[in-house]
From TrEMBL:
One of its GO terms (biological process) is peptide biosynthetic process. The lineage of its organism: Bacteria, Pseudomonadati, Bacteroidota, Flavobacteriia, Flavobacteriales. This is Elongation factor P. InterPro entries: Elong-fact-P_C, NA-bd_OB-fold, Rib_uL2_dom2, Transl_elong_fac_P/YeiP, Transl_elong_KOW-like, Transl_elong_P/YeiP_cen, Transl_elong_P/YeiP_CS, Transl_elongation_fac_P. Pathway: Protein biosynthesis; polypeptide chain elongation. GO terms for cellular component: cytosol. Belongs to the elongation factor P family.
Amino acid sequence: MATSNDIKKGMCIEFSNDIFKVIEFMHVKPGKGPAFVRTKMKSVTNGKVLDNTFSAGHKIDEVKVITRKFQYLYEDDNGYHFMNNDDFSQIYLDKDMIENAQFMKAGEEVTIILKDEDESPLSAEIPPTVYLEVTEADPGVKGNTATNALKNAIVETGARVMVPLFIEAGDKIKVNTEDGSYLERVK
């Protein structure tokens, strides 16, 4: 069992009947009173971010996790199916275990976080940016170019992305998967 003094970025701990990954931490030693550790943690099961303060020496339950690269295969009514690139075994994840899954396309590599003791899947992390082809784009309105005007576009995975007026169907674009924003057109 670890203490709050052992907390570091990337560490997974069990807290409030859930497993959290430490995103940020700061050891604070005020001039008056006991030291404490201020943390920002993200749930690996549902993605919620939580701020918490642990007193110095507070006992925490560290959870050993492993990450593996899997290839996204397909989606069905219940969730998503992935294949391990090393031994070709398949794994299944529920729809609520993956944030921004609308940007995943078949064949893409995804990092899946597994609990070390029984290798049960906890969550999946898609790459921070993806390259997708625009399948549909609203027509650009003439005379609307004085400002940074955006229009709706649908990419190959079915997700909606706001793009600049010059993007047409068939163009490849780079998309930020965290907020679904357009980054650039890809040649």
